[in-house]
Design goal:
By secondary structure, this protein is α/β, with parallel strands linked by helices. It has 3 domains: 30 residues, no CATH class; 331 residues, Zn peptidases (Aminopeptidase, 3-Layer(aba) Sandwich); 84 residues, Sandwich (Immunoglobulin-like), CATH 2.60.40. Helix content is 29%, strand content 26%. The protein contains 11 helices and 19 strands. The chain has an 8-stranded mixed β-sheet with strand order 3-4-6-5-7-10-8-9, with helices on both faces. Strands 17-14-13-19 form a 4-stranded mixed β-sheet, with no helix packed on it. β15 and β16 form a beta hairpin. Bound molecules: zinc ion (ZN).
C-alpha cells in the first residue's frame, strides 16, 4: 500500500481502464515524461520519410551505390543524414555509422559479390555501469515482383519504409532524452535477399558478447486493408514471438520440459510485456499476440537474433495486402498493384511507433531483471515460494511476482514485494509464475521464468 501511495505521488496520471469483462477494472499508473515523449511522434514525419525513401526508385540490396538520387547507396546515405540531424539537435548524443560487410554470391538472391550496409544510430546509456542494449530495427531494402530485379522500380513504401520511418522517428524523439541503458536504432539491408543485414548484426552482437536484452523488429506497419477478404483494421497490431527458442540447448530443453515452459520463452515474455505497456500508454491500439515466430513459413529480421539466442519479436500490421506487397507497380483489370505511399495509413503507423516508444522507454528506464529466479522445491507444499537476487546496477524499488492459470495466455495477477523472496498460498502445480523488477516510478523489467531451486 505504501508503494502504491508513493507511485501515486510520483506519477502525474492515474488511469482507470475498464476491461472488456464488464464489472472488472484495473488501475494503471503512467509515467508523465514517457507520455510527453510519445505525444511528439508525428504521423506527418512518418509520411515524409516514407515518401523520401520511395522517391529513390528502388532500394534493392544489389541496386546502385553510386547514384546520389537512386538506389540503396542513396537510401543508406539519406538515413545516415537523418540520424545525424537528430544527433545535432540533441547535442551529439547519437553515434551514427554505416556498418558494412561483403556478401559472397549464394547462387540464389546474392548473384554477385555485394556490399551490404546497415545504418545504425546508438543512443548511449547514461549509466556507465548499465551494459544493457535494446535494438529497434526495420529494413531499408525493397523489392518488386522479381526478387533479383535490382534496377526496376520497387517503392517498398509499406515493406519496409514504414518500419524504417518508425525507427527514424523513435531516434528523433528518444535522442532528446536520457535513458540509463543503450538503445540502438538500425535500418537493415538485405532482408529481402535472405535476412542478411540482421544476420550480420546478430552474429556480431553474439561474438562481441553484447548484452542485448530485447530486439524489436518493425516490418510492414502501415497497411490496414486486406485484399481478397477486404478487411479494414487500424486498431490492432500483431506481435510475433517464438515459442520454443530456436537457440535452445539440451540443458534448457530439460528445464523447459520439467517446468512446462513451452509458452514462456523470453521472447514471449517480451511480447506479453509489449501488450501490457503498449496498451497502457497508447490509445486505440490493441496488441494482438501471435504465438509463432513469424507468419506461416516466413521470417523477418528478428529471427536471426532469435537464432543467436536473443530475445526478439516482430511488429506487423493486422492485415496484409498482397496486391501491394512485392509487386511491380501496374494496373491489371482495374486492380492497382504496387507498394505505394498512398496505400499507407500513417495514423495507424504512428500508433505502432508509439507502442515501440513506450516499450523501449519503459524497459531502458527499468532496473535490470532479477537474477537467479527460482521456485523452491525442497519440500512438498501447497503454497509456492519463489526467491531471487537483486540485479546489478540500479537497485529496484521492489519486485512484481506474476501469476496466471496454466491455460491462460496472459499474466493475470501481480503481487508486489520489496523482499527477494515470497511465499504465495497458490500451488505451483496449478499456476505459472514469473518475477520482474520495478523502480520507484513503476518502470518494470521483463519477467523472468523461475527454475527449480533448493
Ligand atoms: Zn519486409
Amino acid at each position: 500500500m505504501k508503494y502504491l501511495y508513493k507511485i501515486l505521488l510520483i506519477t502525474a496520471v492515474v488511469l482507470i481502464n475498464l476491461t472488456t469483462d464488464y464489472g472488472q477494472q484495473t488501475t494503471s499508473y503512467k509515467d508523465s515524461q514517457m507520455m510527453e515523449m510519445i505525444k511528439e511522434i508525428s504521423s506527418a514525419n512518418l509520411e515524409s520519410s516514407v515518401r523520401k525513401m520511395v522517391s529513390l526508385g528502388t532500394r534493392h540490396t544489389l541496386s546502385t551505390r553510386n547514384d546520389k538520387e537512386k538506389g540503396i547507396g542513396a537510401a543508406c546515405n539519406w538515413v545516415k543524414s537523418e540520424f545525424e540531424k537528430y544527433s545535432k539537435d540533441s547535442g551529439g548524443k547519437l553515434e551514427v555509422k554505416l556498418d558494412s560487410t561483403f556478401l559472397e554470391p549464394d547462387g540464389r538472391r546474392i548473384v554477385r559479390k555485394t556490399l551490404l550496409t546497415n545504418v545504425m544510430a546508438t543512443l548511449k546509456g547514461t549509466d556507465p555501469n548499465d551494459k544493457r542494449i535494446f535494438i529497434v530495427g526495420g529494413h531499408l531494402d525493397s523489392r518488386n515482383s522479381e526478387a533479383n530485379d535490382s534496377v526496376g522500380t520497387a517503392p517498398g513504401a509499406n515493406d519496409d519504409a514504414s518500419g524504417v520511418s518508425a525507427v527514424l522517428e523513435l531516434a528523433r524523439v528518444m535522442s532528446k532524452r536520457n535513458f540509463p541503458a543503450t538503445i540502438i536504432f538500425v535500418a537493415f539491408s538485405g532482408e529481402e535477399q535472405g535476412l542478411n543485414g540482421s544476420t550480420f548484426l546478430a552474429k556480431k552482437a553474439k561474438e562481441q558478447n553484447w548484452n542485448v536484452v530485447a530486439m524489436l523488429n518493425n516490418d510492414m506497419i502501415g497497411n490496414t486493408f486486406s485484399n481478397e477478404t477486404l478487411l479494414r483494421d487500424n486498431m490492432q497490431v500483431r506481435v510475433f514471438s517464438e515459442a520454443i527458442p530456436f537457440s535452445e540447448t539440451d540443458a534448457q530443453k530439460n528445464i523447459r520440459q520439467s517446468t512446462s515452459a513451452e509458452n514462456d520463452s523470453p521472447s514471449r515474455q517480451l511480447a506479453r510485456y509489449i501488450k501490457e505497456i503498449g496498451e497502457r500508454y497508447v490509445d486505440q491500439i490493441e496488441v494482438k499476440l501471435i504465438y509463432r515466430n513469424d507468419r506461416f513459413l516466413r521470417g523477418g529480421d528478428h529471427t536471426p537474433f532469435n537464432r543467436q539466442g536473443f530475445t526478439a519479436v516482430r511488429f506487423c500490421e493486422m492485415n496484409e495486402n498482397y496486391n501491394y506487397q512485392h509487386q511491380n507497380v501496374r494496373e491489371e483489370n482495374g486492380i492497382k498493384f504496387g507498394d505505394l505511399p498512398e496505400n499507407i495509413d500513417y495514423e495507424y503507423a504512428r500508433k505502432i511507433t508509439c507502442v515501440n516508444a513506450a516499450v523501449l522507454a519503459s524497459l531502458s528506464s527499468a532496473p535490470d531483471v532479477p537474477q537467479n529466479v527460482g521456485v523452491v522445491i525442497s519440500g512438498l507444499t501447497n503454497s509456492t515460494t519463489l526467491k531471487w537476487k537483486a540485479p546489478q546496477g540500479k537497485t529496484p524499488k521492489g519486485y512484481l511476482v506474476l501469476m496466471r492459470e496454466t491455460y491462460q495466455p496472459l499474466w493475470e495477477k501481480k503481487f508486489y514485494t520489496d523482499k527477494t523472496e515470497i511465499t504465495l498460498p497458490y500451488s505451483k502445480d496449478n499456476y505459472f509464475f514469473a518475477v520482474q523488477s520495478v523502480d520507484e516510478e513503476g518502470h518494470e523489467s521483463l519477467p523472468v521464468w523461475p527454475v527449480p531451486v533448493r
